[in-house]
Amino acid sequence: MAAALRGRAGGLAALWRLQSRRLSSFDVAVVGAGIVGLAAARELIQRHPSLAFAVLEKEQEPAHHQSGHNSGVIHSGIYYTPGSLKAKLCVQGAALCYKYCDQKGIPYNQCGKLIVAVEHDEIPRLKALYERGLQNNVPGLKLIGAKEIQEKEPFCRGLMALDSPYTGIVDYKQVAQSYARDFQEAGGTILTDFEVTNMEMAKESSPESEDGLKYPVIVRNKKGEEISCGHILTCAGLHSDRLSEISGCSPEPRIVPFRGDYLVLKPEKCYLVKGNIYPVPNPRFPFLGVHFTPRMDGSVWLGPNAVLAFKREGYKLLDFSTGDFLDAVSYSGLWKLVLRNVSYGLGELYRAFSLSAQLKQLQKFIPEVTTNDVLRGPSGVRAQALDSDGNLVDDFVFDGGTGNVGSRILHVRNAPSPAATSSLAIAAVIADEVERRFQL
Ligand SMILES: Cc1cc2nc3c(=O)[nH]c(=O)nc-3n(C[C@H](O)[C@H](O)[C@H](O)COP(=O)(O)OP(=O)(O)OC[C@H]3O[C@@H](n4cnc5c(N)ncnc54)[C@H](O)[C@@H]3O)c2cc1C
């Protein structure tokens, strides 16, 4: 039975609803209690306090997947193509994130970040990143030389670095939980243990009846419980393509899971790292490369790598799901991606198993780090959208569908990094889009 975490429903009425198959009716149901779904639900209920909103989440708690398994970096917006949603929403989102944390007393550390060139051929790319960051209006950026690198990070070697003092760190699970609280305090309902498996137009209530007109879509979970609603917003991360497919909308772009494993520095070695230290990224990939990231609990994480995963929510090296595997290998886009990047993919796989190979990349920046100084740490799995030509979809994508159910849905199809940083800015864009499409 779905666990109602509270909301508009209360007392006996709530009990009745939980005992019946039809749990309740809502103007808008949001699928997915990750940081994006919660931020959007919070924004929508604040704009429309008289409407009934629900968030439906398959796990027992919010932020269980990507939003609770990430580097925790508040990105400043350097990397992204000027004019893209990613660029705009990251710069806006970082400012909103700092402001929100100040308002709510959520701890963060604006510890800054260096993107460090260790080879001469990386310098032109570093300079191009600097120009890009300026175009994106990232505050405080400057290029610094080897001496200044060592003043900021005494153990880090490099020829030149891009210094981004605006970058910070935060615990995004805490931020997401705070969004959930705001949503509930505004009267929203969060139903956990509610895995959406089906969405269809109501058959039993006539479209002319008041209920039929207002809440014509039935959303069912895998236990056979259901809610009815007027409109749906899906923010389902690693399952966003599947949610789109079951609602009758396009299954493409498909989601390809990329696992990222972290190493952690032993506590006695954490003095080696003061702020974030990143490589100059490989322009062929959307991932930023393995980096040194201090955490809010005082630990330091190294990583993450990017390995094609055989299970969408598989956090261990050997996790495997037959369904997820067959889904992936039956998609032509994946084969095109794999064939274009065989050597890179095999290299990442090798490094995932070999601690010393992973360390080799990191020692380019801090040569003092040895295998004795690190332990294997946690992992995260990125939901990366991939088109049928094998291209990784770079920008955030919001998309609706057609038909009875499809025209009542807005899908968040691709919300990779820095979507945690950008969550409040993304929420405003989603809320605008929901209002426009559904005339709320
Ligand atoms: C390794 C890693 C490092 C990252 N580092 C950073 C970083 O430093 N800074 C940054 O800004 N971003 C970072 N990101 C990206 C960021 O974490 C994600 O972009 C963000 O968390 C996406 O949030 P989301 O709500 O879209 O997805 P998720 O957090 O994955 O939430 C989706 C939710 O939908 C639920 N769901 C799925 N299917 C169903 C269903 N059928 N029914 C009900 N519920 C369903 C899931 O259980 C899940 O809770 C990182 C990501 C990873 C993986």
Automatic annotation (TrEMBL):
Keyword Hydrolase included in the entry's annotation: no
The EC number(s) this enzyme carries: 1.1.99.2
Pfam families in the cross-refs: DAO
Matching InterPro entries: FAD-dep_OxRdtase, FAD/NAD-bd_sf
Assigned keywords, A-Z: FAD, Flavoprotein, Oxidoreductase
Catalyses which reaction(s): (S)-2-hydroxyglutarate + A = 2-oxoglutarate + AH2
Record flagged with keyword Acyltransferase: no
Stretches assigned to the FAD dependent oxidoreductase domain: 27-432
GO MF annotation terms: (S)-2-hydroxyglutarate dehydrogenase activity
Names of required cofactors: FAD
Enzyme class at the top of the EC tree: oxidoreductase
Family recorded in the similarity comment: Belongs to the L2HGDH family.
Name under which the protein is recorded: L-2-hydroxyglutarate dehydrogenase, mitochondrial
Annotated source species: Corvus moneduloides (New Caledonian crow)
